[in-house]
Design goal:
single chain, 149 residues, mainly alpha, 2 domains, 8 helices, 68% helix
């Protein structure tokens, strides 16, 4: 459950809370024994009519009610990037991570001062080795950064 709450915290900081997913997760969290006023309110919302901004506000509120410190945008960027790198290295199908690697690629290009990561990503299907190496490098950076917080 901790990992789920961390991901929700990252999604709030990244302005990427999906309303339908948030409502269903709120229901699951209530069943699992968590209970706050904002969590109950979120669970009672319509998954198809709840606005993204309202969902993000309610998730942020129930996390605060649980005493969870909000992530900064930078912390969320590292956290989500680490999840993406784990997917790539874990052998997940490209469709599960392809749209989310931008944050990792940009961070690696900035850190190295080189665009090699973009070439490695483009050639992933024919030669995955270089891109997997970049993902391992990113994980080392992310773990170091996230343990500082």
């Amino acid at each position: 459950m901790t990992a789920l709450l961390m991901r929700l915290n990252a999604d709030v900081a990244d302005y990427n809370v999906e309303p339908d997913r948030a409502v269903w997760l709120a229901c699951d969290l209530l069943v699992a024994g968590l209970d706050t006023p904002a969590l109950r309110e979120l669970a009672g919302e319509s998954p198809s009519r709840l606005e993204k901004s309202e969902a993000g506000a309610l998730v942020g509120q129930f996390l605060a009610e649980l005493g969870i410190k909000p992530m900064t945008r930078e912390e969320a960027d590292w956290f989500i990037g680490r999840e993406v790198a784990w997917k790539v290295l874990g052998g997940a199908p490209r469709a599960e991570w392809e749209d989310d690697t931008w944050r990792v690629n940009i961070r690696l290009a900035t850190e190295s001062g080189s665009d090699d990561v973009f070439a490695a990503a483009a050639n992933y299907d024919s030669d995955s080795g270089p891109y997997l190496g970049f993902m391992r490098d990113y994980l080392r950076l992310a773990e170091a950064q996230l343990t500082e917080w």
